[in-house]
Amino acid sequence: MATNIAAERRLLGDDFAIVAPSHYPALADLGAEEALALARQLREQRNRLRGMAHANRRARRGKAEPRATAPSDAALMRRKQVFAAALKRVNARLDTLHGEARRARRTEALRDALARKRAAKVHHPGGGASAEAGMRVKANSKRRTRIDPRQVGSVSQAGKAAQARRDG
Known about the structure:
The protein is mainly α. 64% of the residues lie in helices and 0% in strands.
């Protein structure tokens, strides 16, 4: 659930100074290093509040010693959500910044590759055999046996004579 800036200011009090740069337009003015430092700070605060809420739940269940000045869980969770939302905004800004840098690096790499390709010696291999005077005769690799034409019918005639002898 989104929280407006006035509600964040009421919830956080003095800690709002940490979250304030995570709102636009101040976030758009941050560089990569400043956004990274802000993300670390926000993550640290979010984790601290999450730990406190976890300790409160353990104390309520009787698994840990209760703290003397432990605020209510609902208030802690709302404060944690404010820091988590701010961290989400800063991470999105970091992704944008890193994306721009990544695009610039890739574009430069592609330009370098194109320059190398254009500078390379052009290699045109020969076309190989061409038709010129037409197709050449290719020798048949199959072995060819010649049968005497007079012998062609003798096999079938021998079969007829054998059948006639069997039939009687």
